[in-house]
Here is the input.
Amino acid sequence: MILRDPVHGLVRFTAPHERVVVELLDTPEVQRLRRIRMLGLASLAFPGAEHSRFAHAVGAAHVMKRYLARMAELEGALGSAATIAPEDAEAAMAAALLHDLGHGPLSHTFEALAGPAARHEHWTRRLLERDGPVRAVLDRRGPGFAGRVVGLVFGRHPVAHLARSVSGTFDVDRLDYLLRDAYMTGTRYGLLDVDWLLQSLRLVPRPDGTGGDLAVDDEKGLSAVEGYFLARLSMYRQVYLHKAVRGAEMVLGGLVRRARALGDVPGPPALRAFLAGEPLTCEAYLSLDDGVLATAIAAWAGHDDPILADLSARFRDRRLFKSLPLADDADPEAARAAAADVAQAQGFDPTYYVAVDRVAVHVLEGAELPCVVRGAVRQDLLEASQLLRSLSQRPFVHHRIYMPETVRAAARERIPGVVGG
Amino acid sequence: MILRDPVHGLVRFTAPHERVVVELLDTPEVQRLRRIRMLGLASLAFPGAEHSRFAHAVGAAHVMKRYLARMAELEGALGSAATIAPEDAEAAMAAALLHDLGHGPLSHTFEALAGPAARHEHWTRRLLERDGPVRAVLDRRGPGFAGRVVGLVFGRHPVAHLARSVSGTFDVDRLDYLLRDAYMTGTRYGLLDVDWLLQSLRLVPRPDGTGGDLAVDDEKGLSAVEGYFLARLSMYRQVYLHKAVRGAEMVLGGLVRRARALGDVPGPPALRAFLAGEPLTCEAYLSLDDGVLATAIAAWAGHDDPILADLSARFRDRRLFKSLPLADDADPEAARAAAADVAQAQGFDPTYYVAVDRVAVHVLEGAELPCVVRGAVRQDLLEASQLLRSLSQRPFVHHRIYMPETVRAAARERIPGVVGG
Amino acid sequence: MILRDPVHGLVRFTAPHERVVVELLDTPEVQRLRRIRMLGLASLAFPGAEHSRFAHAVGAAHVMKRYLARMAELEGALGSAATIAPEDAEAAMAAALLHDLGHGPLSHTFEALAGPAARHEHWTRRLLERDGPVRAVLDRRGPGFAGRVVGLVFGRHPVAHLARSVSGTFDVDRLDYLLRDAYMTGTRYGLLDVDWLLQSLRLVPRPDGTGGDLAVDDEKGLSAVEGYFLARLSMYRQVYLHKAVRGAEMVLGGLVRRARALGDVPGPPALRAFLAGEPLTCEAYLSLDDGVLATAIAAWAGHDDPILADLSARFRDRRLFKSLPLADDADPEAARAAAADVAQAQGFDPTYYVAVDRVAVHVLEGAELPCVVRGAVRQDLLEASQLLRSLSQRPFVHHRIYMPETVRAAARERIPGVVGG
Amino acid sequence: MILRDPVHGLVRFTAPHERVVVELLDTPEVQRLRRIRMLGLASLAFPGAEHSRFAHAVGAAHVMKRYLARMAELEGALGSAATIAPEDAEAAMAAALLHDLGHGPLSHTFEALAGPAARHEHWTRRLLERDGPVRAVLDRRGPGFAGRVVGLVFGRHPVAHLARSVSGTFDVDRLDYLLRDAYMTGTRYGLLDVDWLLQSLRLVPRPDGTGGDLAVDDEKGLSAVEGYFLARLSMYRQVYLHKAVRGAEMVLGGLVRRARALGDVPGPPALRAFLAGEPLTCEAYLSLDDGVLATAIAAWAGHDDPILADLSARFRDRRLFKSLPLADDADPEAARAAAADVAQAQGFDPTYYVAVDRVAVHVLEGAELPCVVRGAVRQDLLEASQLLRSLSQRPFVHHRIYMPETVRAAARERIPGVVGG
Here is the structure.
């Protein structure tokens, strides 16, 4: 199978161990990802950012292909026997494609609203374990194969660097989404150079013979690694935490809370159960996607409940909440209380119309960091990189309070902790 | 309003005559275009091609802005008084944004299946004339403004070159979609250079003083114009008529015909009326989008009618019809009959499972061609361009017959007119 | 060795059979190519086009690397034993790097002026055969290796498709220069897609077992091949035959003729011998480059001979000849005679100040065309491609007459055969 | 005049105040910049980086054009009378084009070797003040015009933000070269987004009415400004201080010192005077360029003095010095002494064969930083940007010791302060 992709160019899955990707692509579970936008509501602020989880899944599998090729080279250079067996490579390709299988409507956006039972990791696991078309493709590879794929998706594999290749620090998931999201939003000048990054990887042999630890070559790689972390930070600041995007999410949050409070809103049974936090079958979960949610919300705009109707119409017609920036250390409760007073005076129920949004982005978050090698010397990444050391000292904080535009106009001077415009 | 776009980079609507675009963007009619994919089913073959009519509408308005700027320059160079009044410029911006307002689910794909009442031009006109949010924005500009916008959308304006700027030969619609579709499909190396094309435009003064006729400068422009027509041809061959994309459309065509034959299929009333060819209110039409259609088709996969159920499941799970190429002049009826026999023998009703697809693309189609000026000399485009003369001699013909994979396997040797693989 | 290249991105020569490239790069003969601009005088019209033969040589070696990788894949698919032995691959890499070794000052520009003894193929051969650093690197690979490299540079090799890979139809030379020249001139939107082109190649097995014939796959490849020929035509029209670039070459032509007529002009002995058409040693030839020529011309601007001095100053300061377009079939002698009269009347010797430039570009020039395969059916390229058939019917003709600006002003109305502006 | 540029696309100088650029482009002083490479010896490590000062000068003028357009917009928004008069805009265009007029062979490389009399600012001033073709173009604009241009080149103008537009923090010089150098070296993924940067500029009105102070808008601009400084740091680390590039410069340094010590080396008189630090006329200076220097060095490879001959041959054939990294705070004298011992033992005179290279790059170097505005609030850039605050705490230090390869092999273990590989 040969595809063209705006981000990676020619994408080929033609080797024997890549055949599994081709088979998986045609399963209904994977095809469903076409109906789920990668960036949830970000296309409200970035009209080009309409790409789906499906395009990302294909991209992640392509990056895995390149990662495996680089690892094969490095193992050759180590003079060691190859530690990635063909069936491991095949499992890694499948894991890369399937790593986000469980995402629900609007990707992370909705997940955040719907509570722990909606976590995509939970659903990814259930969908991989269930007796369905995806599992059938995996099981055709023999006993143990599906288990190996599940292990890789969740970070477990005897070869250390492979364990982290789907979900780690420089995993194929991130490498694809940072590039793809930058490309599609038009914030294109990222510092992320995947070619250079892969090229700068090294394997430092382990004494126990279980392959090598991933490292980067100082001469070539330090800039590439720093660029990766900077690109990630830049995407958070410019896209993922864009104030208008978060403003849309706050409206959505309000309407989901309201729908839940009302209990019995119209819509497909699966969606109603999902909102109510009731258990869902896999089939029911798979029936949910962006279109189903949007259709339901459009219908709710005519609901009898004025709050659900108003929030749904706002969401549909893009009359989103507006925000004011809060100081990093402002008291969120005090801010909320002040805005709530104004909202109430204007007839808005603050439970649904006022929200404080605080996210702290740690540049090196979750990172099992590679070490840096200069010749034979190994160094911690933070020791080698002055730039990352500087950046890791304090998280980047997004702290804003959201409310309807008229509330903002009246409340601006009264909310404690507001900074700037 | 300042946006970022993967195709055009920074997009700004900040001038007074661009304010209308900002207001229109927030109407529900325009926001609905977010839910309609530009290329219908093409993302089945090109995973990146998930962009919507909305992104294209914004892009078309951006190209109009640049077109107007170039025209202002050229009019200045003519020494004539400007013939594009500010209110014309404003109407042109609105017309560029709204030109596709009436598109229905899957853009052209569904339109082709649903008959004349579904033509997007029809619905664009109705949506512009109806008393709704878009019309309210236009009417705020004063009496006559909405009429001017409708005129421009349908190619009428006293200034000849402006009349063709929304829908003509080098219209803003095509300039955006050729670029955007190439970009998003990853078939990126098009010959289309909008900067150079705009730069190579000239205005040849008309004796009657109604502005000038659009021309291109030989030295600079001939290559640009040729590149434009080649880019268009290339997109037809590589994307719009891609055999797998058409294969999906043939499945969709079968299932729509079946749904219509059954008469009473489940689904939202608007969709059922639409399929039945019954008259629709604007509100009902506006409720239709890609998600509504996909949701209905997914439900039909469980329908009692085995044909509707099978075709719906094929569509959802991407088990599309396969094809064989026919000679340009092959007899479509003979081919269809031969395939129908095989289909019937395998238990497939040929009405829904066999289709011949024939499209002839004329490179210069619909083109009121600009003339070419070399100094003071005017020349017809076809006289000046040997390349276009050669290309215009015969259309490019897409001619294939579609059927289920098993039918193809059995029928391959028996269908008359099949060429090659 | 790992390099970065603006055209190809990451360029790696790390495999054993690529080691020869690394060694050759450091020879003085190859390093000299840094001092020779790829496009001669084109940077006068395209300020960015300052790239050297050296950058192109590296790029051609990179494309060869990718070509060899694709051939290995195709041979694997044929099920045949590999026909490209490791030493052939090594020779091919060397040949790609060295194919232009003999270029002299300003590449093709000067070559055209200096007569047959200056042909770069002649000098490439001499430099490959001479006992110098390049030869030493080749000879270290064993007896016969240098001969194999020379054979490949000049189109001879037992494996047919390899014989044409350095200098043929889709040779690595052209694939690099079409991309690089487009990129550096900023005429970037070429239709050339090397990834897609390589991917669409096929090998059709030969009965005699000497490997396969190169073919393209209809479904994938026809567009790619057509795009390649269109890109080539586009570069000729927009860049290689740009009227200002040719205007500079005509000035250079005049001054070289004058210098030769004067016989004894100052300058390095090698340059003087070269101009006089006297035999040169390889060492003398290697001492010539763009800088040496420019330095000499700058000095000649102060020469006693007024013609040489004037032409040299014009060249240095970019007061180039201007041109008028001639009809394809205009009589060049009649045009020249008319312009010569005016030139003479203004005190310009027509021998040096008037020149007719006629170049006919045949789109498929020199092309041993690949066939097209549709499944098992082979077709001639011209049979399969209506576009190329159309284009091959008549060459694109560049026909202009050049002279100083004042002569053009006075002669414009008097030269027979002038068309347009 | 309309040009194409690989970096900026279409470049147009067609407005009345841009006419001066077109006239200046044809002067011999500006044309000479074609013969001087922008990045000196960097093309040794980055084969694509062969662009000249001329291409950069055109690019800087283009960025100035865009800067002036943005300023006109901002002044309009201030409601103030325009403070950039047409003749100021014209002078600014000329200054942008001419800002590097005085660069000598290999740009900064040679300048650093040749002492204070070779500083390009010195020669830019002399060339602008001298009675030559450039001055003639400027003087045709009326008395005082040339003075205004000189003022702008050296940072003086009554309008504060214009004074810094040629040479300041976000000056047109840097904006072009950061983009161009990144593009041509193939280290393309810079964070520099000129569109966004210009768009995020603001003018904060001054009480005294002399226009406004340049600021950036927090919401839009902070990322853009940070990206600019990161791009600059990245170019220093990856390109300007690349160890192989500096290795070439060290060889050149040695041979220049040796040539000076010998006193009377062959070569053009201007070059000999330049090397000897003797005063030069403008005409003599203008005769120097990369080609002249390279020609001389090639000749010196046959010189009687073995040191000059060896270093010249090394330079020509790219047998450059190799290096070892030193700790930031290593004692350079101790390192040099240790390497000198080994060099001497191998027969190399350390004066010419051993060099310590230490450069400290301060991220915010020389920056009169813009303030950041959040609504009505002004903030210092370092206060607003945690990222820049972190980065400004310590300079990035390049510290290496250079010597011939054989010396490095023997000295590696003996040089104090060496870190890593």
